[in-house]
Write a structure and sequence with these properties.
The chain has 305 residues and is an alpha+beta fold. The chain has a domain of 91 residues: TATA-Binding Protein (2-Layer Sandwich). The chain is built from 16 helices and five strands. It has a five-stranded antiparallel beta sheet with strand order 1-5-4-3-2. A hairpin with a 5-residue loop joins strand 4 and strand 5. Helix 4 crosses helix 16 and helix 12 crosses helix 13. It is globular. The termini are far apart. GO terms for molecular function: alkylated DNA binding; DNA-3-methyladenine glycosylase activity; DNA-7-methylguanine glycosylase activity. It comes from Pseudonocardia autotrophica. One of its GO terms (biological process) is base-excision repair, AP site formation.
Amino acid sequence: MRDREWQPPYPLDLYGVLSPLRRGRGDPTWRTASDGAVIWRVSSTPDGPATVAYRRRAGGPVRATGWGPGAGWEIGRLPSLLGGDDDPSVFVAHHPLVADAVRRMPGLRLGSSGRVWDALLPAVLEQKVTGTEARRSFRELARRFGDPAPGPPDVVPEGMRVPPTPQQVRAIPDWEWHRAGVDHARRSAILHAAVVAHRLEAAAELGGEQGRVLLRRVRGIGVWTAAEIAQRVWGDPDAVSFGDFHIPNTVGHALLGHDLDDAGLLEVLAPYAGQRQRAVRYIESSGFRRPRFGPRFSPRDYRTL
């Protein structure tokens, strides 16, 4: 067991900074205590898997307790994970809604997990499908092919799993991908990435556009997927998920009162160059919800095709 306490030198929303790493309510790599006092997270590290419990009393230090061979690595990165490398002071709001969100949410920071593979697998699963489909696929793959979370069984919540490793993913038979609801295109992208996963971890060290370019060298990883990874792995403040089904219209209605396409999103975010993803995050976290005018997009079940 490893244990560490760290006092953030800035206002911190612990759940808010960690929540982008969660993949839906049934994510087997994440648990939140019923009273919200503890957040459990399972991850892979260069030293092996780790389970870490994060706790914080109001205004006090964050306490991280970890188990597994990777616990030392994971806990050693606690400040970075909680936004210690982030610098929101350079951000300038150019719209009233964004300025209000900045004022109301001083604890919103962009954390960095430091691990590409853990973010890559669920990001590819989310390509061109509904969140319900993607989360179901990740949940099934993790439960069937990921190892049990390290740590005492009487302490670590039951059913938590380590994200499947590149080696484990490459060994999954074709019919199991189908059973998990993953189509050929997403499966191929994941397998291509698994072959060079050790090289892709360098993207976290490069950061910024260079890191995203490295990720896009993998067949099946484009601008959207690279941005989704960059946001979580190195807290990239400019990595906007262009090509997203929801973001252009959410930003458009929040700032202009109407829908946008990607070209319009690029234009409206131009004043935030270098900080465009932070602007999007403030908008998404502000509580604004764009009006809905039609039925929701229905999830497909590739297991029945």
